[in-house]
Amino acid sequence: MSAPSDLPAHSAHPLNTTTSAHTPVKPDATTAHPPPGKPDPTLESNATQRGLAAPHASAAAELARLKINLKASLRQFPDFPEPGILFEDILPIFADAALHEGLLRALELAVTKEFGAAGKPDVVVGLDARGFLFGPSLALRLGAAFVPVRKRGKLPGPCETAEYMKEYGSDFFQMQGDAVKKGQKVLVVDDIIATGGSAAAAGSLVKKLGGTIMGYVFILELDFLKGRDKLDAPVYTLLASQEEKTES
Ligand SMILES: O=P(O)(O)OC[C@H]1O[C@H](OP(=O)(O)OP(=O)(O)O)[C@H](O)[C@@H]1O
Ligand SMILES: Nc1ncnc2[nH]cnc12
């Protein structure tokens, strides 16, 4: 049902000897990053903009190259937000215009490949808060509407509510009652699937509103938590991560 990422999980290595609990650790990058704001010529999307696209490069090759660049940019912070959690920081992607563009291109290619047979989604549903970083842009590229799932108390008007457990604690999600119309095809997107509690709660809200879930799309997956087992529609993860619980 799902399409596992084809990149190996990395192990985290401290970059320096500072002992702060929240010092980032970063995998050994295999690719040199361009400075922030400078387009990375290895990203086909930028090459295309400059008229340099390799005409014979397939979508699969482009996706594989984008994934390598994206993966190399991620950082990990041990013991955040609490002891025992190795926090995966996706924000470096958004701090670099070429990586940001590369993420959207990679997701567009992946969604078309993995979910294209089911047609175009009517709605992309993004989860509060990191699903908002790329959900609206992806929706635009796919020609779909964007609808947020928010933490409780943030949305006006009649709402549906679902309580859920996540890797660190419990919370409540809400959607506006008219945000998804009966029968609309919905793609649920978020940065990370850990225990799967957040995504499952979002899925339950979409179904309460009458939507049909085409699938779930994540940038990263903490494989060892088996979160995808909580989801009853196809799951696609762009980049693999943390196959086993890491001692920090
Ligand atoms: O699979 P799960 O165990 O449910 O965990 C995954 C969720 O946890 C994080 O969000 P968080 O609630 O920390 O909120 P934030 O996006 O506002 O930081 C992440 O962005 C996912 O939404
Ligand atoms: N380990 C983790 N890193 C970043 N976000 C998360 N959400 C749940 N678990 C997480």
TrEMBL record:
Compartment(s) where it occurs, according to its Swiss-Prot or TrEMBL record: Cytoplasm
Record's keyword terms, sorted: Cytoplasm, Glycosyltransferase, Purine salvage, Transferase
Highest taxon of the lineage: Eukaryota
Domain called Phosphoribosyltransferase: residue spans: 114-239
Gene Ontology cellular-component annotations: cytoplasm
An example molecular function term from Gene Ontology annotations: adenine binding
EC number: 2.4.2.7
Region annotation (Disordered) ranges: 1-54
Alphabetized HAMAP family for the sequence: Aden_phosphoribosyltr
Family from the record: Belongs to the purine/pyrimidine phosphoribosyltransferase family.
Oligomeric and partner information: Homodimer.
Protein name, per record: adenine phosphoribosyltransferase
Organism field: Ophiobolus disseminans
Lineage summary: Eukaryota, Fungi, Dikarya, Ascomycota, Pezizomycotina
